[in-house]
Amino acid sequence: MSGEHGQLLGGLPAPVRRSLLAVLVVAVAVASDACDASVGDAAALAAAVKRAGSDACFCSFDKRPACVGRTSVVAVTADIALAAPVHIPFNASVSLVGPHAISGAGDHGLFVTFGQLALSGLRLADGNAMGTGGAEGCGTIAIFGACGGCVDVKPTGSLAVSDASFERCAANHSGGAIYAYLSEVTLRNVSFARTSAGVGGGAIAIWGGEATIVASTFVGTQSSFTGGALCCAKSNCSVSRSLFRSTSAGEGGGAVAFEGGGSGGYGPAARSLELEDTVFEGTAANHYGGAVLVSGGAVAAVGVTFDRCAAAVGGAVHLESSKGYSGVSPIESDLDLRRCTFSSCRATTGDGGGVNVVSAGRVTLGPGLVFRGNVAETGGGGGAYLRNISESLVVRDAVFAENRCRSRGGGLFVEFQAPKPRVECARCPVEIDPYSRQPCAYAKNGTWRSWDVSSDVAVVGSTFVGNEANFSAGGLGVTGGARMALEDTSFHRNSARISVPRP
Ligand SMILES: *[C@@H]1O[C@H](CO)[C@@H](O)[C@H](O)[C@H]1NC(C)=O
Ligand SMILES: *[C@@H]1O[C@H](CO)[C@@H](O)[C@H](O)[C@H]1NC(C)=O
Ligand SMILES: *[C@@H]1O[C@H](CO)[C@@H](O)[C@H](O)[C@H]1NC(C)=O
Ligand SMILES: *[C@@H]1O[C@H](CO)[C@@H](O)[C@H](O)[C@H]1NC(C)=O
Ligand SMILES: *[C@@H]1O[C@H](CO)[C@@H](O)[C@H](O)[C@H]1NC(C)=O
Ligand SMILES: *[C@@H]1O[C@H](CO)[C@@H](O)[C@H](O)[C@H]1NC(C)=O
Ligand SMILES: *[C@@H]1O[C@H](CO)[C@@H](O)[C@H](O)[C@H]1NC(C)=O
Fold first, then answer.
1. Contact 468/459 with Cβ under 8 angstroms?
2. How far is the CA of 280 from the centre of ligand 7 (A)?
3. Which protein residue's CA is at the shortest distance from atom 5 of ligand 3?
């Protein structure tokens, strides 16, 4: 490159050569792209974003889709302190590229986007959505600037963030760092620290949209009500290869709150929450679900670890179907956990040291599930407490080890609402344990093999070892109108203070 320029300008004196070269370089840059820019201060940034929405860079809205706009790439060449939020016009597509910081003064947001905004290699900090307003858990009404402390994504907009961090972003209502309403958010390698929300989603709140979160970390983010890190309402959210550490919520979902039910005219479509290869560590909620709170919608977790999560009820996960109310249909929750580990999680004043299900459609635990060392300090189900499951429960290839509880079901307790217990024990093999004549699920100890009945509950290929209930059902307890199949499942060293269930 420099060699060619050397030949071309070779006959000229050095200073002339240098200035000609500079002009040439600028001219080439301008000619190749008036829409791209380098910005080093707030005014230049605002101008570049405005230009991105002009005819030159993006087609007018009414000419779409025949005329497609382009993305303006704006290189951020210095740290920028904003005096006011930057508004991305609905007709713009802007990609801001670091590495540098963009910060607010702690009393206003950084970006409000009606268009397509991409942020990469940037440190975003000190944004605050201080307004009032917001109607639901994740803030349906965001028009008063109470949501999205650093970035507010409007229905015509979208947000893609990569290799970036958010710090000290706060929202009076929802989405400490990011709020997205009827829009799409994609994050890759993004870290959140010290972000908070007055109501839902300490880092991110999304309502009626789609969120995809990959390889990201949430540390110490918090919300006063639900979703210490993420509040996902009427939305489909997926989180993979990410970490939630020490995030917390005042009410429920120390890390994630998912409200998958329909409302507000957006219909009863069941939304989904997908968690994959992700770790929840030391997350906490004052009431429900130390890591995850679910009301309505389908939850699938694969390869997820919940370690030392705590809440009053449902140490790691608390799940219920959403209730119907005027004009809104109830939505059942489904729970599907595979290759997940729950370790040392605690329910401090209720049921479900690891998982507490209040009501659900279908629950599948396993294959490859481990509940170890979880505690329901005053309630039942040291590992998990499951009740009111309307469709089916399958526990497959799961290990319940060293869990404990105060009342019933040291490892697992299942409670159905139907009229009478129908646990079928007639075909139980004879056991060593003298209590085997009791409904088998209540036995203190014992080993069942190939006891197969078509049933509502199937426990297959699982192990219950060293669990302890201070009332009944050391390993596994079942009550209510379920028929039950136990197959290749073993029970060792489980203990309960009594072995006979109360009638
Ligand atoms: C883009 O939107 C802005 C307002 O948001 C408007 O002023 C401008 O004319 C629009 N440009 C085009 C090309 O539509
Ligand atoms: C936050 O919102 C609440 C009600 O939505 C309001 O009472 C309060 O004043 C707001 N706080 C600030 C700092 O605006
Ligand atoms: C993730 O983003 C950080 C900047 O926040 C960067 O330093 C790091 O290299 C990125 N990691 C990967 C794997 O791209
Ligand atoms: C979420 O997924 C469901 C099922 O695939 C779909 O019907 C719905 O439109 C998606 N988006 C939202 C915002 O609910
Ligand atoms: C069981 O759950 C269903 C919804 O799945 C709900 O309608 C019903 O009221 C629940 N029953 C009890 C006793 O909680
Ligand atoms: C529990 O069952 C195991 C396996 O059958 C047996 O080895 C052990 O002695 C039993 N323990 C008690 C206390 O019955
Ligand atoms: C077990 O129950 C007894 C009687 O209710 C109580 O005294 C004891 O403290 C309980 N132990 C534990 C570990 O909860």
1. no
2. 30
3. 164
